[in-house]
Amino acid sequence: MFEWKLEIDVYRAHDQSPSCHGIVGALGLLRLVDHLYHENNPRRVKGERFRDHVDWNEKHFEEDIVSICSAIFIHNLDARWFQGAKIDPRVAPLACLLKLCDALQDWGRHSESDSDGIPAEEYGIDVVNNKVIYRAPVDREDRIKLELSETLKGVNSFIEINPKGSRG
Asked: So what's the pLDDT on residue 165?
């Protein structure tokens, strides 16, 4: 996260939200993959270390696995954690994608277990001129826009929520 210029105190975030699915998932995945690297590259050698058709190069762990787990860790954090700096999609594309998906999902949708939820027809997504166009129920619009604007840098350059003419 340091490379992404985010000023998130991960220890404090964990202490304040120890059961957050993003934090738990990220730390669990990091521990599991770290264990696999320890078994397959115990000296943590940077360079090709193939075993069973998998390259256990320590460079992959440091550059890819840690980045993936960091993106998972922060995707569910609320806006207060991004007051110092927002997620920049050019620097942290996976973190941006996870945060975007988390903001756009809606637990109040109609489902087998919630027949009173909002029907799927109230939602829509498209890409027009390299921009994501997302349609959501009007009562959800402000919450989505606020979450995205508080956490993602330059969000208006790549997504529009309920632009004029997008509602049926």
From this structure: 58
User: In 3D, which of 148, 25, 12 has the Cα closest to residue 87?
Assistant: 148
- Which tokens sit at 118? 């909002």
Q: Which of 85, 54, 60 is nearest to 151 (CA)?
A: 85
Cα–Cα distance for residue pair 58/42, rounded to 1 Å = 10
Dump pLDDT digits (tens) for 81-105.
999 899 999 999 999 999 999 998 8
Distance, in Å, from the CA atom of 13 to the CA atom of 148, rounded to the nearest integer, reads 19
| Total residue length of the chain | 168
The alpha carbon dihedral of 139, 140, 143, 148 has a sign of: negative
Closest CA to 57 of 72, 44, 38, 70: 44
Q: What is the pLDDT of residue 167?
A: 52
Residues of the chain with pLDDT below 70 are 165-168
Tell if the pTM clears 0.90, that is, is over it: no
| Helix or strand (DSSP H, E) at 52 | none
101 — alpha (psi -120 to 50), left (phi > 0) or beta?
Answer: alpha
Please name which of 105, 103, 110 lies closest in space to residue 155, comparing C-alpha atoms: 103
